[in-house]
Amino acid sequence: HYTANQESKDNDLASVMSLLTHLLAVLFGMGSWVSINGLWVELPLIVPEIPEGWYLPSYLSVIIQMANVGPLFVTLMHRFRPGALNEAAVIYTIIGLGTVSTFLLGFFWKDTVVVAGAPRSVALLVLTFFLAAVDCTSSVTFLPFMMHLKPQYLTTYYIGEGVSGLLPALVALVQGVGVVRCINSTQSLNHTLSTYNSSLTLDLQAQYQPANFSAEVFFFFLSAMMLVCLAAFLLLNYHPSVASEHSNGRYTNRTKHRAPKNKNWAEQKPMMDPYRAPNQKARSSFGSGSYSWPQVVYIFVILAWVNALSNVVLPSVQSYSCLPYGNNIYHLSATLAAVANPLACFIAMFLPIRSLLLMGGLTVGGSGLGAYIMFMAALSPCPLLVNDVSGGVVIVLAWLFFILTLSYVKVIIGIILRDEGHSALVWCGAVVQLGSLLGAVTMFPLVSVYSLFSSGDPCNTRCP
């Protein structure tokens, strides 16, 4: 007989399986952007060793946008040849490529090749392109894969995606990346034949402190994180304990093993198909028809906007907005911003408020904080309250709540689109990349071509 004790054991077992699946979803999501995020935080160690110098961030921005050919291909295949692309094979391929590329970076990132008479870090730039292709393509493959798990695991995946930025930042903090010390250097500015007439001034020079471990070790760590992501993906597909957490059957074999009564569980048609036979109660032909077309456009415009701001526009000026307040303020704002992302996802697990009005309000509020950050960056190296402790506190809080609000908006949009079907999540990933692309196209000339922002000298800048 089925006893209460047996029922309790079954409930405990189900809780363990659910917890395991949540953990695997976090580890899977962590592999989405960990390699590119890791590369960015390692720049202070890389830049002094390569001929490109501090032009490298500009090159990286261009390379990352060029790598959008990956998600473009996947999106076009999904639109014009629905069902033809084996998404599981694509995920295996990109995780494998990311693992190999980060591993090779550990050996070849300093190697140069003479191009047009000048040494160039060809290996670094080429491997970065592969990493960017991996991470960009993950936006349109990892997210749709989560469609095949129960809805609560999508938020957990977003936590993992946030951790992909937090973990490299914390490791770089332990590594001691970008720690600057100001040292005195005596210079003779007005030397004459009479030594007593020589005037001496003290000048401070910025000196980067040596790291606690090398960039090579850091790249091998990133490669290990990609292997962990691969292991998580394998277990999400094949571990018997996770099978009960799948929505309908196994993702990798969905076309062969789905039950006849569930033939339509994974959409095989393009999401935005104007010729779809409308449901009588549907408000539009989008997904399940829960939202009208103006609402759909509203959701996707907000999605593109918040990703442009949080992924590219504001991060490209973070150093300008924070460094004038001191190196500690810069590192604190970067670390807390990285913490804010998974924190927003954690909040969304318990407060998944789907109100479109709230979404718009949070977007406006986050954009206002972003405008303040941009204003401080434009005033660099002498922003408001630069000589006051409150100035540093305000800029740190601005970064924290900017990332917190917009990350929450991104998660809520993901939850909304998850209910609209597999195709909606593919387009969600595509719009994320489109927003990032538009942000990069806007900011690259402002920062790198027209040099509208000035960083100043961390040791010698004096503000009134």
UniProtKB/TrEMBL annotation:
One of its GO terms (cellular component) is plasma membrane. Signal peptide: none annotated. One of its GO terms (molecular function) is riboflavin transmembrane transporter activity. It is a multi-pass membrane protein. Pfam families: SLC52_ribofla_tr (PF06237). It is found in: Cell membrane. Coiled coil: none annotated. Its main location: membrane. The chain crosses the membrane at residues 12-34, 54-77, 89-109, 121-145, 157-180, 217-236, 296-317, 329-351, 356-379, 391-417, 424-447. InterPro entries: Riboflavin_transptr (IPR009357). Keywords: Cell membrane, Membrane, Transmembrane, Transmembrane helix, Transport. It catalyses: riboflavin(in) = riboflavin(out). The keyword Transmembrane applies. Plasma membrane transporter mediating the uptake by cells of the water soluble vitamin B2/riboflavin that plays a key role in biochemical oxidation-reduction reactions of the carbohydrate, lipid, and amino acid metabolism. Belongs to the riboflavin transporter family. This is Riboflavin transporter.
